[in-house]
Specification:
The chain is mainly α. The chain is built from 14 helices and no strands. The longest helix is centred in the first third of the chain and has 34 residues.
Length: 393
């Protein structure tokens, strides 16, 4: 038992160190500025909307559905590795200690998301419902309890069913949790308690079913690998992750776009870089995500200054990351065998990045059309992009 405690502690410290190593590149200065303005603008828009929200707004249904969905997604963080399928087999009968620590971390690392969402919804509840302060915070405690039950329930289901049909389990738990929160928001605490008891019974069914079953190492290892790979892919948008290799997809539905590169020997590098940008998930989805964030802010935030700052910051981030990513292909390529000028690839990358940023500027400008001087967003994206492209190496 002491060995398992040491195993979990050492893996947890390694996991925290790995996350912190990449977090310092993710939360840089310009990202912090964007987050501050996003939170500030979102809070201002929210407070202004609360002043005019109708009393018949279905806040209870909306909050119950959102909280129910958030509660249902309780993927366990086990930190298991592939060799554990062999080395931890002799300790399988004592793995409950290891998993108890894993579930404790899973709960504390996920409960804050539900807590923040519910706390943000409290002003809306006070504006459209007659709930007292005590009732509101009682429901808050109920959501914390439901989160604990959800973490235990998803783990028990995955353990007993080997991870099969997890979406069915999540759907059932989401419905039960949403019903419990909805009843609580209607001050029907007895019905909320009954729904909570149902969730306990549901969890105990799979908990009892998992007794005596061998540990599904293969499922938990794969789950952990997918979770860490998702984090590494996210971190790769901000810095280079050495052991991460982005997947390549043809995207045949975008073949028509290559026609914008005229056929000719002088455009060979431009054509190759264009295909690299379109087909590489890391490059393409980086541009899509940052463009989508900038467009959403421009469309829904009615504060022009905030839109301009966010558009400029994301234009800088998109340009510098795309340029570095497209130039960072140090491996052998067939085009190296041909007598092309040394600066041909650099010029091609510059042209493709400019084309991508022009498209981003058009999208952001169109989304900002409801704001005064909407064209400034377009100009800011282009100016920041050009300056970043010229100054960066």
């Amino acid at each position: 038992m002491k060995n398992l405690r040491d195993v979990w502690s050492s893996r947890f410290m390694h996991y925290i160190g790995e996350v912190q190593k990449y977090m310092q590149f993710i939360f840089t200065g310009h990202i912090a500025i964007v987050l501050v303005f996003l939170i500030g603008a979102g809070g201002y828009q929210y407070s202004e909307w609360l002043k005019v929200v109708q009393t018949d707004f279905p806040a209870e249904v909306l909050i119950a559905v959102i909280i129910g969905i958030l509660l249902a997604f309780s993927r366990p963080t086990t930190l298991l590795r592939e060799p554990d399928q062999v080395y931890l087999l002799p300790l399988e009968s004592k793995m409950s200690l290891y998993f108890s620590k894993a579930l404790a971390w899973t709960f504390w690392s996920q409960v804050w998301i539900v807590a923040i969402v519910y706390i943000v919804s409290i002003p809306l509840l006070k504006a459209v419902t007659e709930l007292t302060t005590i009732e509101i915070w009682t429901i808050f405690l109920l959501t914390i309890v439901l989160k604990y039950l959800s973490v235990r329930g998803e783990f028990s289901y995955r353990y007993s069913e080997r991870g099969q049909m997890v979406w069915v389990d999540r759907l059932i738990r989401a419905v039960i949790f949403a019903a419990a929160v909805y009843m609580g928001l209607h001050a029907q605490l007895l019905l909320a308690v009954i729904a909570t008891v149902i969730s306990v019974v549901y969890m105990m069914v799979f908990n009892k079913k998992s007794v005596g079953e061998p540990v599904p190492y293969e499922h938990f290892v794969k789950l952990e690998q997918n979770r860490m790979m998702s984090f590494y892919r996210f971190a790769n948008y901000f810095t280079d992750v050495p052991h991460l290799h982005g997947s390549i997809r043809r995207r045949s539905w975008m073949d028509w776009i290559y026609k914008f590169v005229p056929y000719g020997q002088g455009n060979a590098q431009k054509y190759l870089v264009f295909r690299t940008f379109i087909r590489t998930d890391d490059h393409f989805y980086l541009w899509v995500r940052l463009t989508a964030i900038s467009a959403i802010i421009a469309a829904f935030v009615d504060i022009p200054v905030v839109t301009w700052i966010v558009a400029g910051a994301l234009s800088f981030a998109t340009t510098i990351q795309l340029k570095q990513a497209l130039l960072a292909s140090g491996e052998f390529r067939m085009d190296m065998l041909y007598p092309l000028p040394d600066h041909a690839r650099q010029l091609a990358v510059k042209q493709i990045v400019r084309l991508a940023m022009i498209t981003q500027a058009i999208v952001v400008g169109l989304c900002a059309m409801t704001q005064p001087m909407f064209y400034i967003a377009f100009i800011i994206v282009m100016v920041i992009s050009e300056l970043t492209s010229k100054v960066s190496k």
